[in-house]
């Protein structure tokens, strides 16, 4: 079968091969036929080494498709079911799951160290234990979440990561209050979803911050009240908040420099929400006096900061009601053979979200 493979960490291009086989099918597993998958910035971060991932590997974790087969012991799924891929399934038994913090369950991460593909030359891993830049994949049954028939595969794929992460940051983690002021730094697919989440919550002012003009224009279409390049954020802060700072600032880039900017633009007693996934050696610093004196809440948000199954259902309900726009987030559609063109469009900021159709 065909799949896009990264041979070594640090390479910036994928090789589309037709000699890849999905392996590991058995009890508790399901085999999926991927129909659509989104290109998320986390895939690029794994390719560059910012996010840890063994290689060679197949990127992709934002996917949807059909169940081809189910292993022994799998209940609630059968061949032909339409599903989205959950790259962080909850085991239901660990301490985090028992506390209701299923987004912190580590069971899914354990899968990342087990190859679920192979080629004639050896084993191949799937990113985050999945790997959706492929025609077929074998995953734990918990990674396959049934979707209603009226949800297209490309919409379900977005909900599988970027939409859930962004909406959840605003709704679950920060719990944006109606009438508040919000700034979102970084307006790719996750940032745009954060903008939409803040709008759903009733924020009065939503300032989108991004260096790419097309992304700023997109943010306005999705609910931002204004959009500025980074060097104009200070002016927006002065105009909108009288220099005090925003009630909520979301960092959706994953870099300490932008996190520091976000902190400085959060009002005293306000909330800084870290949504971007960054590198282990990139350190965010605050001094002990400002930490105490400013009383700013610093809230990391992992995968939307809540139960992902409930978050999926909420995203579908909001989409059905017309409260969020998911179709327009897909600015580019490509075939798997064009994956490197899509990577280039993401790196330049030309693409908001790319759907790879398989």
Q: Termini separation (Å)?
A: 11 Å
Task: Report the mean per-residue pLDDT as an integer.
Answer: 96
| Class computed from helices, strands and strand pairing | alpha/beta
Tally of strands: 19
Helix count, DSSP H or I runs of 4 or more residues: 12
Query: What is the strand content?
Result: 25-35%
Largest sheet: 7 strands, mixed
- Percent range of helical residues: 25-40%
Gyration radius, rounded:
20 Å
Judging from the principal axes of the Cα atoms, what is the shape?
Answer: globular
Q: Which residues sit in consecutive blocks of at least 5 with pLDDT less than 50?
A: none
Report on this model:
With 358 residues, this protein is an alpha/beta fold. The chain is 29% helix and 26% strand. It is built from twelve helices and 19 strands. The strands form four sheets. Strands 4, 6, 7, 10, 11, 18 and 19 form a seven-stranded mixed β-sheet that branches. A six-stranded parallel β-sheet has the order 14-13-12-15-16-17, with helices on both faces. Strand 16, helix 10 (288-294) and strand 17 (297-300) form a beta-alpha-beta unit. The longest helix is centred in the last third of the chain and has 13 residues, at 308-320. The radius of gyration is 20 Å and the shape is globular. The termini are close together. The model has no long low-confidence stretch (mean pLDDT 96).
């Amino acid at each position: 079968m065909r799949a896009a493979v990264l041979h070594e960490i640090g390479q910036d291009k994928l090789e589309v091969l037709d000699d890849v086989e999905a392996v590991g099918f058995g009890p508790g597993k399901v085999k999926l036929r991927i129909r659509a998958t989104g290109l998320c910035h986390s895939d690029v971060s794994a390719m560059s080494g910012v996010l840890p991932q063994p290689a060679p590997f197949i990127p992709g974790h934002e996917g949807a498709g059909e169940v081809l087969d189910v292993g022994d012991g799998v209940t609630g799924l059968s061949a032909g079911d339409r599903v989205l891929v959950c790259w962080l399934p909850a085991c239901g038994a660990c301490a985090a799951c028992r506390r209701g913090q299923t987004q912190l369950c580590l069971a899914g991460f354990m899968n990342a160290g087990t190859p679920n593909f192979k080629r004639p030359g050896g084993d191949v891993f799937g990113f985050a234990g999945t790997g959706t830049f492929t025609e077929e994949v074998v995953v734990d049954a918990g990674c396959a979440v049934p979707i209603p028939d009226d949800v297209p595969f490309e919409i379900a794929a977005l909900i599988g990561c970027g939409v859930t992460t962004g909406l959840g940051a605003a709704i679950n983690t920060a719990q944006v209050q109606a009438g508040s002021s919000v700034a979102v730094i970084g307006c790719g697919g996750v940032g745009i979803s954060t903008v939409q989440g803040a709008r759903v919550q009733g924020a009065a002012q939503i300032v989108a911050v991004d260096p790419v003009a097309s992304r700023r224009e997109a943010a306005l279409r999705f609910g931002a009240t204004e959009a500025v390049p980074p060097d104009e954020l200070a002016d927006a802060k002065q105009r909108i908040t009288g220099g005090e700072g925003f009630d909520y600032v979301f960092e959706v880039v994953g870099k300490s420099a932008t996190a520091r900017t976000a902190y400085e633009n959060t009002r005293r007693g306000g909330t800084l929400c870290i949504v971007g996934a960054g590198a282990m050696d990139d350190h965010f610093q605050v001094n002990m006096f400002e930490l105490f004196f400013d009383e700013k809440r610093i809230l990391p948000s992992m995968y939307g900061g809540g139960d992902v199954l409930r978050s999926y259902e909420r995203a579908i309900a909001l989409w059905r009601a017309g409260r969020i726009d998911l179709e327009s987030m897909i600015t580019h559609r490509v075939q798997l053979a064009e994956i490197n063109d899509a990577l280039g469009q993401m790196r330049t900021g030309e693409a908001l979200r790319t759907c790879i159709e398989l």
